[in-house]
Design brief:
Helix content: 55-70%
Strand order of the largest sheet: 2-3-1-4
Radius of gyration: 27 Å
Order of helices and strands: HHHHHHHHEHEEHEH
Mean pLDDT: 83
Strand content: 5-15%
Structural class: alpha+beta
Distance between the termini: 78 Å
């Protein structure tokens, strides 16, 4: 229940960011929201964004049900339905009134930040809104193109298609007007992608501590029992003093950082402590390794050894 509530919350944040700050300025972004915007403006506002989003998601899921599996489809139906309802409930109000933020640059930037925050929240709780997620999942099953690359290519292409939307004026006026909105759309993609990564990686951010102290045993005991993190001890020697010392190596989450500093300071305020953010730690207590192991039937066979000259002559003989 908590996951579902947070998925709905994340989608509500996304819906507000897109509908209140991006859509009123007629800027096309990525995802199904961008495709729905294209359909909305291409039909002169006759087809609402939410309807175009939902119908397209249903069609994509019908075409890929067997390929993606029941679990993915059920989660996507819930997410796509929720997001379409939220956008549909507030879309007409914001498109029929003046934008809340009249400056398009500030409005699109704020909307992209809210979209990234919303995506990060519902992704962290195993939610999906469909759209380019479905296309990326299909491409991942059928080809070797990564999910992130597929989503980026599709999103950038959707934004570029806004150049061909109906426009009153000659080609020069179209170029001046549409190129600006295309740039806004591309910038919004990078903003909400960056914010999404920050939100998703914040709980999993990993830190590496290296601690040098003469009271390493006391510090190690407290770190192990109070934080639940393991301590690896490394024998070291001072080059100048030739003194034998012990280094402590600790990997932990960002949430454990303050506790580790407090423990070290309480036992040995003069201890040397270095810490750095590491890109990832995989294994027991941290993240699983996501790389796929090739099936033994599909693994490339080792090349056959070249026969020696003696073997060749024997075979000929």
């Amino acid at each position: 229940m908590k996951d579902y509530l947070l998925i709905v919350l994340g989608m509500a944040i996304y819906a507000i960011g897109f509908t209140a700050f991006i859509l009123p300025h007629e800027v096309v972004i990525g995802g199904m929201a961008g495709f729905g915007t294209l359909v909305h403006f291409a039909t002169g506002g006759y087809v609402p964004v939410a309807v175009a989003m939902y119908v397209t998601n249903v069609l994509l899921l019908c075409c890929s049900f067997r390929l993606l599996g029941r679990r993915f489809v059920v989660r996507t139906i819930f997410g796509a339905t929720t997001l379409s309802l939220l956008i549909g409930a507030i879309e007409r109000y914001f498109t029929s009134h003046q934008p809340i933020v009249t400056d398009p640059t500030m409005s699109v930037a704020l909307g992209a930040v809210l979209c990234g925050l919303g995506i990060g929240v519902y992704f962290n709780h195993h939610g999906t809104a469909g759209g380019t997620d479905i296309i990326a999942a299909i491409m991942d099953k059928l080809t070797h193109v990564s999910v992130g690359r597929t989503m980026m290519m599709v999103d950038m292409s959707l934004v570029a298609l806004s150049f061909f939307l109906p426009f009153e004026g000659d080609i020069h006026a179209r170029i001046q007007a549409r190129i600006q909105t295309i740039i806004y759309g591309w910038v919004s993609i990078f903003i909400y992608s960056y914010i999404t990564d920050m939100v998703m990686n914040a709980p999993r951010q990993t830190i590496q501590f290296i601690i040098l102290s003469d009271r390493w045993q006391e510090i190690s005991d407290r770190l192990t029992h109070e934080t639940g993190r393991g301590v690896t001890t490394i024998a070291a020697e001072g080059y100048w003093t030739k003194q034998q010392r012990t280094l402590m190596l600790v990997w932990c989450r960002h949430t454990d950082e303050k506790d580790i500093f407090r423990i070290v300071k309480a036992i040995d305020p003069g201890a040397y402590v270095t810490y750095a953010h590491v890109k990832g730690v995989y294994g027991n207590g941290f993240d699983p390794i996501h790389y796929k192991v090739p099936d033994r039937h599909t693994r490339p066979k080792p090349p056959k050894p070249n026969p020696s000259p003696h073997h060749s002559s024997s075979a000929r003989d």
